[in-house]
Amino acid sequence: AHPSFHGKPAIILDIDETSLSNYPSMVKIDFGGTLEQIRQQEDEGLDPPILPTLKFYQFAKDKNIAVIFITGRFEYERDATIKNLENAGYHHWDKLILRSKEYEQAKASDYKNAMRKQITDQGYDIILNIGDQRSDLAGSNTGKNFKLPNPYYFIP
To answer: Can you tell me the distance from the alpha carbon of 59 to that of 61, in angstroms, rounded to the nearest whole number?
Structure first.
């Protein structure tokens, strides 16, 4: 417990290249392809976990810290995303937030910032935010930020 926290402590995790590795999918499309081909690969639900993130996830859950995924994946990808997270070993998360139609055209940083604001408005204290893009970490309500390396792509 931290004296300035009043709600339930929470960590925010991005999914692609933070919690799950898209590397096998990228190999299949020779590190190229269209955005649609990339989404089709993601929707197969076969991406393996990034093991240090999975271990940290399990640690947080063991300490009764809420874990909330905020991803740039779209709402229509929910079933495939849940299947993939569960197959990779992520179970019993507190929230899984995907892009709704309202945020389809929004910049990633604006969308993720708005979602973190909603989370804090719901009574969570975000203590940690982990992602592979600067857009995952930009804005407010982030807690301590950690950016993981991503040698494959950049999302503004």
So the answer is: 6
